[in-house]
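Problem: given the chain below (205 residues), write out its structure.
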Amino acid sequence: MDALLKGIVRKEAILAVGLIDTETVEKARSIHDTYPTASAALGRVISGALLLASMLKEDQRLTFQVTGEGLLREIVAEADWLLRVRGYVRRAHIHLGLKNGKLDVGRAIGKGLLHVIKDLGLSHPYRGTVPLQTGEIATDLAYYLATSEQIPSAVSLGVYVDTDNTVKASGGFMIQALPGAKDETIKFLENRLRQLPPISSMILD
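Solution.
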């Protein structure tokens, strides 16, 4: 069963959001008939949209879009404050094989842009755009949060696609340093995060 949990370490001014959305991403894969690399990219964007949507207030919604020069061209997900989500990848039948044991999403996306559009109930939606740093989406989302929203964040996203092309694990986490977070706490978290296995492996296990 899919789940999202959010918590704050009050004395340390740290916010953490954890997500498992395997059923949702597998449903999206089935609807769009995506091949493994496209499945991984679509799943990561859906997960990223849900992590961002966990911060929305009532009746707010957002669009998380990645556009690139690679074979996938465009991946987009929309999510609202109730964590209802839908996603789309322009070229579903893309599979590039593995790189360092993982699906090569970065090469399939290539150079491009990350867009976040938020409908906050104001006269005009908020729109933030940053250049892609890696195409791996998690790193790019963390870069967006740091540069466009001035929130230092660590983001991990992962999708495990089995040999039968089904999604067996999908999800991610987002950890943010809130105002007042101590430097030593941030350094401790950075060191711990470097030691973690891939998020898809942790969900699969």
